[in-house]
C-alpha cells in the first residue's frame, strides 16, 4: 500500500521542480510530466513533522557541500533508501529551503514567515546565496521586539551585516529594547552577549562625542582661518577705519563686505595699540590679539615682506628660543590650514562663503578663542 503522505509530497515536489526546469511539455497518454522531465528522485529529506520530501542527490550536492558530504557517505545496505534528516525547524521552512536549492528562488512570503529558520539552514548547509537573501530580509524585518533574538542568531550564524544592524538598532532604541522579554532572557542566559551589546553602545557614544568634538574643532579652525585672512586684509589693503602704517584708512562708513568679523578685528587692533594694561598682561582682549598675531606668524611663510605687525619679530623669537610650545603652535597652524583646505575641497566656493558667514555672524574678536595649546 502506498504512503499517501509520500504521494502528496511527490506531487507537490513536481511543482517547484517543474518551475526550476521550466514548464513541462504537454502530457502524452496521461503520463506524469514531472516523471518524464526529471529522473526519479534518489534521496528523501525527512523533516521534524515526518514529511518526506523527494529530491535528487546530484542537485543537492551541486548546491551544498555539506549535503554532498552526507550523500557521499557509504550506506549500510545498497538497497536501503538514502534519507537526509533536516530536523529542528518547521516542515514548511525545510520545503522552502529545498525549493531554493532547486530554483535559487524564495518568495517574500516565505522569507517573512521562515527567514530566521532559512538563515540557520543556509549557514548549516553552506548555501551563501540564500544566506545573503535571508540577511537582507531579516534586516528589513528588524524591530525593537525581535532585535535581541535576531542578534543571537546572527552571531551563531556568522552574519556580520545583520549582527551590526542589530547592534545599531539596540543602540538607537536601548531603553525600549531593555524592556523586552528578549533582553530579560539575555541577561539570565547569555551575559557575554549582553556585555558585547553594552560595550558597543559605550564605544558608539564615545565615537559620537569624538565626532561632535572634531566638528566643533573644525568650526573653530575655520573661524581662525578667516581671522588670519581678515588680519592680512586689514594690514595689507586697509579697511573702513584701520589700514597699513604707511597709508591712510579708507574711512568708509559701510561695514566690510569681505569678512564678517572685520569690524571686530579693527576695533581690537585699535584697542591693542592704545591699551595700558597690555604690557602687564592684564587685558584678556589684548591677550587674544597677541595670540592671533603669533598664530599668523606661525602660518606666514614670507615674514620679511609681511605687513602684519610683529610677524617678523615672532618668527625670530621662535627661531632663537626653540621652546617646546613652538611645536604646538606650528601644529595648531597646520590644523588651521588643513581645515581651510578641506573646506575648500568639500564645498562649492559660493556655498562655503555663505556658510562661513552664517557660522561667524555677529561674532567678533572679543569672543574669539584659541584651542588650549597644551591639549594639541
**Could you report the average pLDDT, rounded to the nearest whole number?**
79
Main pleated sheet: 3 strands, mixed
Report the C-alpha radius of gyration, rounded: 37 Å
What string gives the helices and strands in order? HHEEHHEHHHHHHHHHHHHH
Major beta sheet, strand line-up = 2-1-3
Q: How are the elements arranged and paired?
A:
Elements: H1 4-21, H2 33-37, E1 43-46, E2 52-55, H3 57-63, H4 65-72, E3 83-85, H5 91-103, H6 108-124, H7 128-140, H8 147-156, H9 160-172, H10 174-178, H11 181-189, H12 191-236, H13 262-274, H14 284-299, H15 311-321, H16 324-346, H17 349-360
Parallel strand pairs: 1-3
Antiparallel strand pairs: 1-2
Helix pairs in contact: 3-4, 5-6, 6-7, 7-9, 8-9, 9-12, 12-16, 14-15, 14-16
Explain what you see.
This protein has 376 residues and is mainly alpha-helical. Helices cover 64% and strands 3% of the residues. The chain has helices at 4-21, 33-37, 57-63, 65-72, 91-103, 108-124, 128-140, 147-156, 160-172, 174-178, 181-189, 191-236, 262-274, 284-299, 311-321, 324-346, 349-360, and strands at residues 43-46, 52-55, 83-85. A 3-stranded mixed beta sheet has the order 2-1-3. A hairpin with a 5-residue loop joins strand 1 (43-46) and strand 2. Helix 5 (91-103) packs across helix 6 and helix 7 packs parallel to helix 9 (160-172). The protein is rod-shaped and about 110 Å long. 27% of the residues are buried. Mean pLDDT is 79; it is low at 1-14, 19-36, 359-369 and 372-376. Pathway: Protein modification; protein ubiquitination.
Amino acid at each position: 500500500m502506498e504512503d499517501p503522505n509520500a504521494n502528496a509530497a511527490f506531487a507537490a515536489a513536481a511543482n517547484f521542480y517543474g518551475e526550476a526546469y521550466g514548464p513541462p511539455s504537454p502530457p502524452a497518454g496521461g503520463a506524469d510530466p514531472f516523471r518524464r522531465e526529471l529522473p526519479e528522485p534518489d534521496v528523501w529529506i525527512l523533516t521534524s513533522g515526518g514529511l518526506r520530501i523527494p529530491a535528487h542527490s546530484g542537485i543537492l550536492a551541486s548546491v551544498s557541500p555539506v549535503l554532498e558530504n552526507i550523500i557521499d557517505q557509504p550506506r549500510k545496505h545498497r538497497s536501503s533508501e538514502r534519507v537526509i534528516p533536516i530536523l529542528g525547524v518547521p516542515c514548511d521552512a525545510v520545503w522552502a529551503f529545498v525549493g531554493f536549492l532547486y530554483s535559487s528562488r524564495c518568495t517574500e512570503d516565505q522569507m517573512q514567515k521562515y527567514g530566521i529558520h532559512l538563515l540557520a539552514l543556509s549557514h548549516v548547509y553552506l548555501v551563501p546565496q540564500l544566506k545573503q537573501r535571508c540577511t537582507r530580509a531579516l534586516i528589513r524585518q528588524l524591530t525593537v521586539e525581535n532585535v535581541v533574538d535576531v542578534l543571537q542568531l546572527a552571531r551563531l550564524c556568522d552574519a556580520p551585516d545583520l549582527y551590526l544592524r542589530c547592534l545599531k538598532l539596540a543602540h538607537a532604541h536601548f531603553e525600549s529594547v531593555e524592556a523586552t522579554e528578549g533582553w530579560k532572557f539575555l541577561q539570565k542566559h547569555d551575559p557575554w552577549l549582553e556585555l558585547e551589546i553594552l560595550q558597543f553602545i559605550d564605544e558608539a557614544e564615545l565615537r559620537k562625542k569624538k565626532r561632535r568634538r572634531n566638528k566643533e574643532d573644525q568650526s573653530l579652525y575655520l573661524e581662525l582661518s578667516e581671522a588670519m585672512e581678515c588680519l592680512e586684509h586689514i594690514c595689507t589693503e586697509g579697511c573702513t577705519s584701520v589700514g597699513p602704517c604707511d597709508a591712510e584708512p579708507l574711512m568708509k562708513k559701510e561695514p566690510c563686505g569681505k569678512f564678517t568679523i572685520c569690524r571686530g578685528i579693527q576695533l581690537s587692533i585699535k584697542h591693542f595699540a592704545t591699551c595700558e594694561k597690555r604690557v602687564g598682561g592684564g587685558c584678556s582682549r589684548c591677550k587674544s590679539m597677541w595670540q592671533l598675531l603669533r598664530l599668523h606668524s606661525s602660518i606666514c611663510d614670507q615674514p620679511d615682506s609681511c605687513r602684519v605687525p610683529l610677524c617678523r619679530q615672532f618668527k625670530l623669537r621662535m627661531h632663537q628660543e626653540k621652546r617646546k610650545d613652538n611645536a604646538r603652535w606650528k601644529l595648531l597652524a597646520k590644523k588651521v590650514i588643513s581645515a581651510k583646505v578641506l573646506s575648500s575641497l568639500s564645498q562649492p566656493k559660493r556655498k562655503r562663503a555663505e556658510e562661513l558667514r552664517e557660522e561667524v555672524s555677529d561674532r567678533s574678536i572679543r569672543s574669539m578663542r584659541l584651542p588650549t595649546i597644551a591639549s594639541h
